[in-house]
């Protein structure tokens, strides 16, 4: 499984819980999400390295802002990927994510990974540490932060609330656990 580093913990945990010992996980840097145009090239380079060495390769990415480029690459190679437009959809499950997005389209989503690495990926990654005035440009149209939690961790919940406050946004918590991602992986990994 060629995966986004932002879901590495979840994938390892799900693999162990389901006894999918036949699955080897190789992750690409999570920071690629700040440059979605680079994801297809990084996936292609990794596929070049792994496709011949494995019986089957699966890509644990959604479209992730590639505008369909990732899908075109994977179709050419006959490689499947996780369903959805982004990780929030497969981490929450499509129905839950759609309901959240319809209830408040102005939501900025966090996962366990993003809460842990908020400073590096969001603050430093978007230059907010050097240019705090950009906060309004980046987040001015958002109304709330929605933390889609994979674990029940009060420390992460506290950090997510602080991050929402720092962005000047409301806060909503939604525990999702690993079940939606596990169910998205099951047809491929057990099929």
Give an account of the 3D structure.
By secondary structure, the chain is of the alpha/beta class. It folds into two domains: 2-85 and 182-190; 94-175, no CATH class. The chain contains ten helices and seven strands. The strands form two sheets. The protein has a four-stranded parallel β-sheet with strand order 2-1-3-4, with helices on one face. Helix 2 (39-50) packs parallel to helix 3 (69-77). The longest helix is centred in the last third of the chain and has 14 residues, at 154-167. 31% of the residues are buried.
Describe how the helices and strands are arranged:
Layout lengths: L1 E3 L3 H11 L7 E3 L10 H12 L7 E3 L8 H9 L2 E2 L5 H6 L1 H10 L3 E4 L1 H5 L1 H7 L9 H6 L4 E6 L4 H14 L2 E6 L3 H12 L1
Parallel strand pairs: 1-2, 1-3, 3-4, 5-6, 6-7
Low-pLDDT stretches are none
Globular, elongated, flat, extended or rod-shaped: what is the shape? globular
Q: Strand-and-helix sequence, N→C?
A: EHEHEHEHHEHHHEHEH
Number of domains: 2
């Amino acid at each position: 499984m060629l995966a986004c580093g932002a879901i590495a913990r979840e994938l390892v945990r799900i693999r162990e819980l389901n006894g999918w010992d036949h699955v080897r996980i190789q992750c690409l840097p999570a920071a690629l999400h700040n440059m979605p145009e680079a994801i297809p090239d990084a996936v292609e380079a990794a596929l070049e390295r792994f496709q011949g060495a494995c019986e089957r390769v699966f890509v644990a990415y959604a479209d992730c802002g590639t505008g369909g480029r990732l899908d075109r690459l994977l179709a050419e190679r006959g490689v499947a990927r996780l369903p959805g437009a982004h990780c929030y959809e497969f981490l929450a499950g499509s129905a839950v994510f759609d309901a959240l997005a319809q209830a408040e389209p102005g939501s900025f989503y966090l996962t366990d990974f993003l809460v842990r690495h908020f400073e590096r990926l969001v603050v430093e990654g978007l230059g907010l540490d050097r240019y705090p005035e950009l906060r309004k440009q980046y987040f001015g149209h958002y109304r709330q932060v929605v933390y889609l939690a994979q674990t029940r961790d009060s420390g992460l919940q506290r950090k997510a609330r602080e991050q929402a406050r720092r962005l000047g946004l409301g806060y909503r918590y939604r525990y999702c656990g690993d079940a939606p991602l596990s169910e998205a992986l099951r047809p491929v990994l057990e099929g």
